Amino acid sequence: MSAQREHFSSKIGFILAAAGSAVGIGNLVGFPVAATKNGGGAFLLIYAAFVLFICLPVMLAEMGLGRRAQHSPYRAYAELGQGLKRWRMAGWLATITPFMIAVFYMVITVWIFGYLIQSFAGNLDQLATPEYFGQFVNDYNFVAYLVGVTIIINFILIGGVRKGIERASKILMPTLFLMLVLLVTFVLTLDNAWAGVEFYLVPDFSKINGSVINGALAQAFFSLSLGMGILITYGSYFRRSDDIVTSGKLVAVTDTAVAFIAGLMTLPAIFAIYPETNPESLSDSSVSMIFSFFPNIFLALSESIGYAAASVAATIFFLLAFVAAITSLVSIIEVPTSSLMEKKNISRKQALVYMGIALTVLTLIAATSFGLVPLFSEFTNYAGSSKSVFDVIYDVFYDTILPLNGLLICLFVRFRWKRAQLTAELSEGNANYQTSWLEKYVSFAIGTFIPLILAVIFTNTV
Ligand code: PHE
Question: TM spans, by residue (predicted)?
Fold first, then answer.
């Protein structure tokens, strides 16, 4: 199959596709709120350091492994790992992880789609009532929204790498950026908006402790789409002459910049509407921020700018979140899809049909596990906790498996593939890399303290 493997047509195509993967719901709400609660500028500094010193090397390793193998994670690990069982396991894990994360991300994306349609239809006042979200998640309308999202995703993925993922990213990412800038500009003109900027940016080092540091690294890891097999798969769509190193740096910078800029929208919006907000009281959960808190902000906004204008602002916000979520979902579903194509030697269309069925079934189980279908909520109760299937997937895969996958790729580079091979791979398409300080740093860090740190995070969560 590798002879006919599709490749991104250009560097910018890859960068936009990978940035599309990286920029997601986590950037828009999760990151800004975490920063504000955990020391503002101090958190931002720590986060930036993690992106640069820990995430970038892992990112380059994933992309390098993918391009070397020209395969999706499963076969990449199997071939470069010379068939050893433990590396096959790593490849298997890097294939199942994106599938499971896709399920929980799909649920959120479907909700966002529902909120987008409702705010577009002028129902902002209903969205803002306290009971709405609870009723919404337990309503069979979910199925209709799920069908909508599934059609959009398949429409993109069926086009393949160039005509699907790359083309969609080239349209959607600039649109996303434009909407973000529009909202930031609008929000910053509201009275009291700057109080939010202050909470977000003024550093408070007294807030920094072990769990904040841990959280910042987990957030950076998730935000850059690491440990999900995505960058291995996208790396395999690189040509030998493409410059992985520069592309990786640009993706990391873009993702971090979007997260940073989103903070200039999210926090000022909160403080302009609720000046008395205590940052400590903001919810850690992006889900409750997006679906319970934000509709209220937009409704309160209608008192000063009118209901119609507030509905437009809400619609743009949900469209922004939807575009961010769709481009991430596409990347994560591409991993098991391309693995299936390779493993079973089937067409993209066939693989998408199988994936579509499996994902739909699991998404329905996760989405109805809040009470709609008692079996699925009871099932998790029997397991000894009162968590929904949705929460269990989130806890297991986000908290635990992501750092484990990161750890595995570091060990793979150190003990199996060897660091000199990684350097050789990354130097193709970027001749200067071999002699750069970055090469020295990556080679050292990836075989020493990065896996150590990831191992600590992993053992803390199991
Ligand atoms: N980087 C995404 C975010 O911040 C996370 C993600 C990527 C989730 C790809 C799913 C798929 O939201």
Answer: 12-35, 41-61, 92-117, 142-159, 171-196, 216-238, 250-274, 305-330, 351-376, 396-415, 441-462
- In angstroms, what is the span from residue 425 Cα to ligand 1's centroid? 26
Q: How far is ligand 1, taken at its centre, from the CA of residue 369, in Å?
A: 22
Distance CA 63, CA 58 (A): 9
**Residue that is written with structure tokens 């390779």 in the block:** 342
Q: Where are the alpha helices (DSSP H) in 394-436?
A: 402-411, 419-427
Q: Tell me the per-residue pLDDT of 24-67, one tens digit each, with 9 for 90 and over.
A: 999 999 999 999 999 999 999 999 999 999 999 999 999 999 99
Task: Provide the residue type at 221 as one letter.
Answer: F
- Please enumerate in sequence order all residues whose Cβ is within 8 A of that of 274, keeping only pairs 6 or more positions apart, or say none: 297, 300
Helical residues (DSSP H) of 38-131, grouped into ranges: 41-50, 56-69, 73-80, 85-120, 124-127
The per-residue b/e assignment along 185-194, b for 16 or more CB within 10 angstroms, e otherwise, is: ebbbebeebe
* Contacts of residue 214, Cβ cutoff 8 Å, sequence gap at least 6: 457, 460
At 354, list the tokens. Answer: 């199988």
pTM of the shown model: 0.93
Please report, for the chain, the start and end positions of each structural domain, with discontinuous segments joined by +: 2-461
> Any long-range contacts for 128-136 (C-beta under 8 Å, 24+ apart)?
128/295, 128/296, 128/298, 128/299, 130/292, 132/295, 133/288, 133/291, 133/292, 136/111, 136/291
pLDDT tens digit string along 115-135? 999 999 999 999 999 899 988
Ligand 1, atom 8, lies closest to the CA of: 328
Q: Which of 59, 48, 115 is nearest to 317 (CA)?
A: 115
**For a pocket test of ligand 1, which of 153, 219, 223, 330 has the largest count of ligand atoms closer than 8 A to its C-beta?**
223
